[in-house]
Design a protein that fits this description.
212 residues; alpha+beta; Jann2411-like fold; two-stranded antiparallel ribbon; 48% helix; 15% strand; binds zinc ion
């Protein structure tokens, strides 16, 4: 893992990673390992709101309103902990998907219960004679943040091509391979790909030196 750096071409958005090509995987990737140590990117409600902002799931006004109303509350912190626990159960489900296994019935039931309690809503937009629909949710209380997480996890389990869901060869991050050839192996060139290439190059140089 490299150090978090900001920039328009960076995989880091507000020090979060968005390289999974699926919200459900970007959510998993909020816990990483740097220099051999687990790094929790969602330690508190403020961090969770910043991730929702970075993922474009909340407007800045909605995030500010939630922060102001619930920021220091035990209820918000409880939701953060529940969301992290959900993330780790989903991680097991994603490993199962990657390994060709099946997703546990308990996870399916949990997602269905969450989606019943915190549904995503649909909105019809009209613009210049064309119509589009979009999903939305009304974030009034901390528990509402479950809505897009449960929805994206359900869509992930139902919709993705399982052969294209992978863990990086080099680190703990997961991604959905949408490349044309379907041969993506690393979370990102910037974080792990280059490092592997450099290591392979050095190994070739050493092998060549031994042959001479
Ligand atoms: Zn990686």
């Amino acid at each position: 893992m490299g150090r978090p750096t900001a920039g328009p071409n960076s995989d880091w958005g507000d020090r979060f990673l968005f390289l999974g090509n699926h919200l459900a995987l970007d959510f998993l990737n909020t816990c990483l390992v740097q220099k051999g140590e687990a790094v929790e990117l969602l330690p508190d409600f403020d961090a969770l709101l910043r991730w929702f902002r970075a993922a474009d799931l909340l407007t800045s006004g909605e995030a500010a309103s939630l922060r102001q109303k619930w920021g220091a509350s035990a209820r918000a912190q409880h939701v953060v902990e529940a969301i992290r626990e959900l993330r780790e159960r989903l991680r097991k489900a994603v490993f199962a998907v990657e390994g060709g296994g099946t997703v546990h019935r308990a996870v399916i039931n949990e997602l269905n219960n969450l989606m019943a309690d915190h549904p995503m809503l649909i909105r019809l937009n009209a613009s210049g004679g064309t119509f589009t629909t979009e999903l939305w949710f009304a974030p009034g209380q901390p528990e509402d943040l479950f809505a897009p997480l449960a929805h994206s996890a359900a869509r992930f389990i139902a919709d993705v091509d399982r052969n294209r869901v992978r863990k990086c060869r080099q680190c703990v991050l997961h991604f959905y391979d949408i490349s044309k050839k379907g041969t993506r192996q690393w979370c990102s060139m910037q974080l792990c790909g280059n490092r592997l290439k450099v290591a392979a190059y050095a190994a070739r140089q050493r092998a060549r030196a031994r042959q001479q």
